[in-house]
Amino acid sequence: MSDRDTSAREPAAVPGGPAAASAAMLDVGELHVSYGRVEAVRRVTVALAPGQIVSVIGPNGAGKTTLLAAVMGLLPSTGTLRFEGEDLRRLDVEARVERGLCLVPEKRELFGELSVLDNLMLGAFARRSRRSRGGALRQSLQVVYDRFPRLAERRKQRASTLSGGERQMLALGRALMSAPRLLMLDEPSLGLAPMMVQEILAIVRGLRDDGVSILLVEQNARAALESSDEGYVLETGEVALRGASAALAGDPRVQATYLGGTTDDR
Hints:
- By secondary structure, this protein is of the alpha/beta class.
- The chain is built from twelve helices and ten strands.
- The chain has helices at about 20, 65-70, 95-100, 115-120, 125-130, 135-145, 150-155, 165-175, 195-210, 220-225, 245-250, 250-260; strands at about 25-35, 40-50, 55, 80-85, 85, 100-105, 180-185, 215, 230-235, 240-245.
- It has a six-stranded mixed beta sheet with strand order 6-7-8-3-9-10, sandwiched between helices. A four-stranded antiparallel beta sheet has the order 2-1-4-5, covered by helices on one side.
- Helix 4 (about 115-120) runs parallel beside helix 8 (about 165-175).
- The longest helix is centred in the C-terminal third of the chain and has 16 residues, at about 195-210.
């Protein structure tokens, strides 16, 4: 696919266009990210409005994880990176977390020897540095437990003893302890059984309904498009196609490449 593909697009509502960018919570424009001489992301433009789930799908090596890392400040980049109108390039990772960005990485990065509770409290580190009151942190912890009852049941267990689905819940819960306004998720369904994938994505949709905006990178393209409002197809570091998720899911080329369908458009 090329960026000239238009059959799945709604021109008046294409993310990254002028109308979307002006109202965007996250505005990524003409982003370039390189590993040495290898350019992993080229001319990528993504816009996410408040209250949206935006999905990014594509094959392995397409640059999806690199995109999230650049937005979070973990990798240097060139181009536009704005969050609620503020230039993110002037902020380090900790400052971005304080502004309301949070990344749940693909490998979850939990501390296996620490308890569930200790892992959750580490997620509130930035808030503790801002001298949040203990009552506010306890309230946030209770909100996480209400959303993930299994974490409350296992709060004294070491994280290493949890199942795959429980570890993903813990990674999400830890992120929520930072009180994010934009939550970036890298392959949240990775390694999970199909029923657990549906449960995790239902939780993600619930977060959106509670006001948390979501940038979702996911190889399970069908689940990602079913769960999101807008979608981008990233291939070899570039945006190959973008549009409303329902339109992308109905596009014959997306179906043939990512959803297991067939197409005569060759």
